[in-house]
Write a structure and sequence with these properties.
Blueprint: H1 11-18, E1 24-27, E2 37-43, E3 46-50, E4 60-63, E5 67-69
């Protein structure tokens, strides 16, 4: 019998799991004039992102389900 997945993931979670630190993401329903965010890291359903103009010490914590790939 194959092992069961006790923690199913939604399609949005699978997209974020494939992203690597340094990649660029967008918020769902993000205005088109706002540039993509750089992904710093994801852990426990939360992701830390930043805008390049914010500087390296300013980050924003976002639920991973609110993010999508910028590609």
């Amino acid at each position: 019998m194959p092992p069961r997945n006790l923690h199913p993931t939604s399609s949005a979670e699978r997209v974020v799991e494939l992203l690597r630190p340094g990649s660029f993401v967008k918020l769902r329903n993000q205005p088109s004039d706002l540039p993509p965010f750089q992904l710093i890291q994801c852990r426990g359903g939360r992701c830390w992102v930043r805008q390049q103009t914010w500087g390296p010490l300013v980050q924003w914590e976002v639920e991973h389900r609110h993010l999508t790939s910028a590609a």
